[in-house]
């Protein structure tokens, strides 16, 4: 029996652990010593946390960007949502901008542009790079043209639980 479902790249928690170590090693080998890890919420947060520990970076920040609204469904442009880090506080610092995937590269491009406009020395890292991305990140663990199933989003939200009445 064949399936009409498109092939997916499945990242397990175990493989994610390997990706974090591999990426941290590649970043260190390249001589990049970030002072701050900036995670792009939501997908970049697990990788940002893992890299902050693996690279022994104590300062972390988050920027909220919405672009995808579903499988292969996007907004016309990435939108920065509140709350967000004040990037001017990072001016003159080496910052590692972290996301889960560089699909079109537009989310990374928006965040990197915002960082550089205020004088942040920013480099980027993702777990996956897609072959058609317009912005190649400085570091990527793997390349794929498949839809990626990440362990933190594979099951979807937990259904609401009915609370007992008081």
Question: Would you write up a description of this structure?
Answer:
With about 170 residues, the protein is of the alpha/beta class. It has a single domain (about 10-145), classed as Rossmann fold, CATH 3.40.50.2020. The chain has 3 helices and 8 strands, in the order βαβαβββαβββ. The strands form 2 sheets. It has a 6-stranded mixed β-sheet with strand order 4-3-2-5-6-7, with helices on both faces. It starts with 7 loop residues before the first strand and ends in a 17-residue tail after the last strand. The mean pLDDT is about 90.
Structural class: alpha/beta
- Rg, rounded, reads 17 Å
Low-confidence stretches: none
Continuous helix count: 3
Overall form: globular
Q: Which CATH top level class fits?
A: Alpha Beta
How many domains make up the 3D coordinates?
1
| CATH structural fold name | Rossmann fold
Strand line-up of the largest beta sheet: 4-3-2-5-6-7
How would you sum up the major sheet? 6 strands, mixed
- Assigned CATH architecture: 3-Layer(aba) Sandwich
Strand-residue proportion: 25-35%
Mean pLDDT: 90
Helix share bin: 10-25%
Q: What is the H/E order?
A: EHEHEEEHEEE
Task: Count every beta strand, where a strand is a DSSP E run of 2 or more residues.
Answer: 8
Please report the distance between the alpha carbons of the first and last residues. 52 Å
List strands and helices in order, with pairings:
Blueprint lengths: L7 E3 L2 H17 L6 E6 L3 H10 L4 E12 L2 E9 L12 E9 L3 H12 L3 E9 L9 E5 L3 E3 L17
Parallel strand pairs: 1-8, 2-3, 2-5, 5-6, 6-7
Antiparallel strand pairs: 3-4
Helix pairs in contact: 1-2
């Amino acid at each position: 029996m064949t399936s009409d479902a498109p092939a997916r790249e499945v990242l397990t928690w175990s493989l994610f652990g390997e990706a974090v170590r591999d990426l941290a090693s590649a970043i260190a080998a390249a001589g990049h010593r970030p002072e701050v890890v900036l995670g792009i919420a939501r997908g970049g947060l697990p990788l940002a946390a893992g890299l902050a520990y693996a690279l022994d970076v104590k300062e972390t920040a988050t920027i909220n960007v919405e672009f995808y609204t579903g499988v292969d469904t996007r907004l016309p442009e990435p939108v920065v949502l509140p709350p967000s880090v004040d990037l001017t506080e990072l001016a003159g610092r080496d910052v590692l901008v972290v996301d889960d995937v560089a699909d079109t590269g537009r989310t990374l491009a928006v965040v990197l542009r915002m960082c550089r406009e205020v004088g942040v020395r920013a480099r980027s890292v993702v777990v996956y790079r897609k072959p058609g991305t317009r912005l190649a990140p400085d570091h990527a663990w793997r390349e794929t043209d498949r839809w990626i199933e990440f362990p933190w989003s594979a099951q979807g939200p937990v259904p609401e639980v009915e609370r007992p009445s008081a």
